[in-house]
Design brief:
By secondary structure, the protein is of the alpha/beta class. About 60% of the residues lie in helices and about 10% in strands. It has 15 helices and five strands. A five-stranded mixed sheet has the order 1-3-2-4-5, sandwiched between helices. A hairpin with a 2-residue loop joins strand 4 and strand 5. The longest helix is centred in the C-terminal third of the chain and has 17 residues. The chain starts with 13 loop residues before the first strand and ends with a helix.
Length: about 300
């Protein structure tokens, strides 16, 4: 399943003037978010910003890109209090919802457009599906989680939360290579989002766990017979985590830290922090275990 946001590379901004501003911007913004870029032919920074706006807007089906030449439409520019170019406004339901002036890096433009996309009329509410999928994953009901996240993606393909949930479902199924392939398809801005970075950490942990999960029974026996064997405890934690037993895995590392916090250059602590990142820092188990870690380290 490809999760690349469908792009319309032929998207060209609509020229807006006094005759069509009502239909192309005000009325149109009741169906989509409308981006209005104020520009001038003599403006160098406008020429820098224009292709960035075009590239980012092309990722969103519910965003429309328009442009207004201030030399030819001075009254509109005055009404919008445009003092310099480039200036960009985003309209939603007939009203300006946000804006900025001057050239911005692509990452900032992406955040601006994404915010307006979320505000756009008719935006699908996928919060219930995301919650359903998240709860199902925590219960290890992977099929239910996968269905919820796939449905969320069909309604909102650009949702980082839905993408992350879908990838976590693949990890839970042991499809680590496919999970990594999905991440590799995403554009650079999406890959940099914290929730996607957390998923990348989850993939790394899953691949590490796949190397030792077959030895889990033997590792459990080693830890039971020799609790101070911290390497066996470390390997067991990774195997447990990979098999979906996150609490048990993190508890093993906490026990290791309790026995010897500095063992092997703080390896148990480093692994535990990697688990925290893989689960996501707002995960309730992470919040609970982080408190325990603090109590062990600073007591």
């Amino acid at each position: 399943m490809s999760l690349l946001i469908e792009e319309n590379n032929s998207l060209e901004p609509v020229d807006v003037n006094a005759e069509n501003i009502m239909s192309e911007v005000i009325e149109a913004s009741s169906e989509k978010a409308v981006i209005v870029q104020f520009w001038a032919p003599w403006c160098g920074p406008c020429k820098q910003l224009a292709p960035v706006l075009k590239k980012v807007c092309a990722k969103y089906k519910n965003v429309k890109l328009t442009k207004i030449n201030i030399d030819e439409n001075q009254e509109i520019a005055a009404q919008m209090r445009v003092q310099s170019v480039p200036t960009v406004f985003g309209f939603v339901n007939g009203q300006p919802a946000d804006g900025f002036a001057g050239v911005q890096p692509e990452s900032s433009v992406n955040q601006f457009i994404e915010k307006l996309s979320q505000l756009a009329p008719g935006k699908a509410d996928i919060s219930g599906l995301l919650e359903e999928g998240t709860i199902a994953l925590r219960k290890n009901e992977v099929d239910i989680a996968m269905q919820a996240f796939q449905k969320a993606l069909s309604l909102s393909p650009e949702s980082a939360e839905a993408i992350a949930g879908f990838v976590r479902s693949l990890i839970a199924l042991g499809e680590n290579d496919e999970a990594k392939a999905v991440i590799d398809q995403l554009d650079e801005d999406m890959q940099k989002k914290p929730i996607i970075q957390d998923v990348l950490a989850a993939i790394a942990v899953a691949k590490k766990g796949a190397e030792v999960v077959s030895d889990m029974g033997e590792l459990e026996r080693k830890v039971q017979s020799k609790p101070e064997d911290l390497q066996a405890r470390q390997d067991l934690a990774v195997a447990l985590f990979s098999s979906g037993q996150q609490i048990e895995a993190m508890s093993q590392l906490l026990e290791s830290i309790k026995i010897d916090p500095s063992w092997n250059e703080n390896m148990a602590q480093s692994q535990l922090l990697e688990f925290f990142t893989a689960l996501g820092h707002t995960h309730p188990d992470v919040i609970k275990l982080r408190r325990k870690l603090s109590s062990y380290l600073f007591s």
